[in-house]
Amino acid sequence: MSENIARKPTNPFDYRANLPKIIGGFAILGLIVSLIWLGISFVRKDNKFVLKNGVIELSKDVEGVINGYERRETQGEITKFYIKADKATTYSDKHQELDNVYIEVYDETGQKFDKITSNQAIYVPDKNDSKLFDARFTGNVIINSRDGAQLKTELITYNRENDTAESPEATEFERDNVKGKSTGAVFKIKNKQVELLKDVEITANADPELEKDEVAKANLQSAKIVANYAMVQETTPEGRPVEQKINAKQNVIINLVPLGNQGNFKQPTDIKANEAEAFLVDKRIKRIDLTGKTEIYAKPFGGNPEYTKINADKSSLEFEQELKNATANGNVYIETNKNGKPTKIRSQNAVFDKPTDKFDLRDNVEIVTVEDNQPTTIHSATAVYEQTNGKIALSGGADITQGGNFVKGDNINAQLYPTKKLQTAIVIGNAYLKQVTPEKTTEITGNELNANFNNADKIQNAVAKGNAYLKQTTADQISEVRGSEMNAGFDSNGIIQNANTIGQSSVVLVPKESKDYSVATLSAPNAIRVTYLNGILNQTQTEGRTTVKLDAPSNRPNASNKKLTANSVKTYLNGNGKDLSKVEAVGDAELYVEPLNAAPNNYKTTINAARFDCDFYEIGNVAKNCVASTKTQVVRVPTLARENRGVQKILADKLNANFSQETQDIQQFDAVGNAKFNELDRNGLANQMNYSANDEVVRLRGGEPTVFDSRARAKAVEIDWDTKNQKSFLRGKVSTTYYSQKQTNGATPFSKTNSPVYVTADNAQFDHQREIGIYTNNARAWQENNYVRADELVLYHKENRFEGAGKVQSLLYNVQRKENGKAAKQPVFASSEKIAYSDTDKHLRYENKVDIRQGTDRILSGIADIYLDANNEVKQTIVENDVTITQPNRRARGTWAQYTSADEVVILRGNPANVEDFQQGNTQGSQLTFAMRENRVVNEGSTKEAGSGRTRTVYKVKNQ
Predict the structure, then answer these.
(1) Whole-model pTM?
(2) How far apart are CA 47 and CA 35, in angstroms?
(3) Which residue blocks in 200-304 are alpha helix, DSSP H?
(4) How far apart are CA 686 and CA 716, in angstroms?
């Protein structure tokens, strides 16, 4: 239904009388004015009117002109729109031209309406629906929408069906606290949406009159948005307050200035982007979404130098008066300054929470803090950086570089000083710490790591857990420390002082040039305490069963590896940190020396003792000597088997092992206190014992030096046992005991095979391979009552013979004789310059100044050959050269004589042979037979020269 409303004249009758004239005059005037107005004020071309919906052909035929025009269009009882104008000119196509127009456009309920005012308007109704129309407004056009928005411009085209107003002119827009201006605008009134098409400038200021409390009133927010295009729209999200959304595009610049309490500004924010979408709630900007080269700059204010810059491909900002948080995505770059200390951040995604000053960063994160031109650089896959608190949580391939320090791992929780320097770093997973100085590089790894730094970039402490490892590299060597856990301490200059491990632990010294150095390795099951001096490895102390290995350089063919094991070990190094100077091994200690190559003179040596104290050469990690104390034992195993050579053992209360610097093998043993030496069946005892690897001589000194085997035992003041040449040299009070005559292999002329044989002398020499024993100076051999003395006695064990020389005296056998009708054995004493015995021939020979006595009988000669039976009893004796036999009252002389013990008959030869009986006279002849039992001499006349024979003595030694 359409209703036209006209103003009533004061006098209706005059009005009616003059109505035709008035109408005619107004019609002509209206037509003239309309033509002029249409020609000037409206955009027409060839009588065509251009509206949003296209080109409309307008009629030129005026139907009527009404002043004080009013019209209300309703549908039922619901008002659709209302038009009022000072003048309305209606044309034949029903379009109207209005002056000083006022239009109300109602919503569906007919309760709320939009207001449009302008100087002029062209109203074009829809041909099919009178409730719809198009309109063109010019001159001071103002639209006040039902939602409180206002649009001002000089030209607007309006379409009722779409409820849309468009302007190509400079336009001003305002809704609540949002104001804007642009060149060209589209106002979609029903949708509460305004598009600002060009040269856009928008301001959004909080309205203090609408604040609910005094605190809120004091926190005003001012925002200015500049762009090539913008759209402002009011929305009412379900369950949330009314929002205004501003979508700005192309060269968007936003300046947001919050006002703090008592007029103090909070931090303002400048924003740039290709596109921005701002959301206002309760008249404040709550969120801004940015895309395309976004730049956010929370600027310094007042005297506070703090700022935050965020650049990204895409960003989303939230505000509470000032910037609350920012979410940035794609090529994110952040620069932030806290207390004048700048930090630069890069990532692919970032969330900045300003109240907590926290950055949540994702994908290829890099954080760089700068202090005195010494940056701290941080990398990770993700990071949470709390700038004010100085906390950084990193995950995914994280690392931190600060000066000469580098920390990395799967995850890192770091604490920064206010100066942005790294204070602590807690690393979890594949933890790694490196400190680099001009002199050395220190590296620490573990499953977990907790490192502390001072404000001068210097590490102070590092605790590693799980496969803990410390490596220090200098120009000369590498030192490595391992343990289940490790605590490393540093001084104020970041110089390492100690590294203490627990659990299975080890320390390794690896020379850079291995050709001259041994690789030293310490390992312990419980703990190792490592001490550094001036940052150089100085001491180690282990706990638990410890092994120290010294691996010799492989380029030395005669070199030996060493392994020292003990319940605890303490090592000392020289000032260079690469050369061991001393090692103390305590508790069930064992030293093992193994040559790199097998050779006839090379031995694998094991030394056991309660404790070792080892000194080293100046360079090379080569042991110089090791002192073993309390019940020491040495076992040396040949690397190659040799005849008559076997495992050697040395026992002593204390042992000093000296090493060769060249071969790194043991060069000399000095054993003190109850020293014992053993090889195969051969043994040596003394209070002190010295063994030299060069000559392989065991020197026994002190106490009562003794050597023995299963055959005999020898003692002397000094004994030198040449194990290489299998010879022994005994000096001073030599005493040998053969456990039985059998053990001498018959080399002594004693009769009892199971009784021991004793040999003494001032000195003795044994050739063990040839089985020859030489006794010199006051040599004496005896078995029970039988003996032989000489300046020198020589026993040939292999040949079953015996020799003596120089002042020979002996009592070797008894001869049975009858006296006074009774048979009795009497000892036979003999002396000479030489003696020889052969057990094979059962022959005993005396030479030079032979003097044989039995009881009152005596034989003097140059040579005496005595032949023994199987029991070593005298069977026959032959003497020659100036033979003289004396008995009481009788003397016999000759050149040769034979005595047979069985019949006690002497055959005497000479030129002549002579028997002188002091009682019965003399008997001479070339050969005389003297029957000693019958006291009778028979002269046989012929002369026969006696032959000569040999003597051999066999000794059988009996155990003492």
Answers:
(1) 0.66
(2) 11
(3) 214-217
(4) 10
| Tokens found for residue 434 | 């490196």
For residue 359, list its beta bridge partners. 352, 385
Torsions phi, psi for 824 (to 5 deg): -150, 145
Position 477 pLDDT exceeds 70: yes
Residue 592 and residue 585: Cα distance in Å, rounded? 13
Q: How many residues does the chain have?
A: 960
* Residues pairing with 338 in the sheet: 341
Element at 938 (helix H, strand E): strand 936-939
Residue appearing with tokens 């139907």: 63
Do 352 and 326 meet the contact criterion of CB atoms below 8 Å apart? Answer: yes
Instruction: Give the phi and the psi of residue 30 in degrees, each rounded to 5.
Output: -65, -40
Query: In whole angstroms, how far apart are CA 890 and each of 800, 893, 958?
Result: 39, 10, 42
Helix (H) or strand (E) holding 4: strand 2-5
Best CA proximity match to 944, nearest among 898, 888, 892: 898
Q: What are phi and psi for residue 316, nearest 5 degrees? A: -135, 130
Read off the tokens for 213. Answer: 């409390």
511 forms beta bridges with: 477
Q: Single out the residue of 718, 649, 720, 633 nearest to residue 681, CA to CA.
A: 649
- Measured distance CA(831)–CA(850) in Å, rounded: 6
For residue 860, give the DSSP letter. E
Torsional sign, CA 808, 814, 820, 821: negative
According to DSSP H, which parts of 696-764 are helical?
A: none
Q: Which residue do the tokens 């003792």 mark?
A: 609
Could you tell me if 889 and 937 are in contact, meaning their C-beta atoms sit under 8 angstroms apart? no
Phi (first) and psi of residue 504, to 5 degrees: -55, 120
- Give the Å distances, CA to CA, from 330 to 99, 248, 349, 945: 56, 20, 6, 133
Structure tokens at 710: 């299963």
Partnered with residue 96 across adjacent β-strands are: 90, 123
- Other CB atoms closer than 10 Å to residue 637's CB: what's the count? 12
Q: Of 284, 312, 285, 278, nearest to 297 (Cα)? A: 312
What's the pLDDT at 953?
Answer: 29
The model's pLDDT over 344-383, given as tens digits with 9 standing for 90+, comes to 889 999 998 888 888 999 999 998 887 667 788 889 999 9
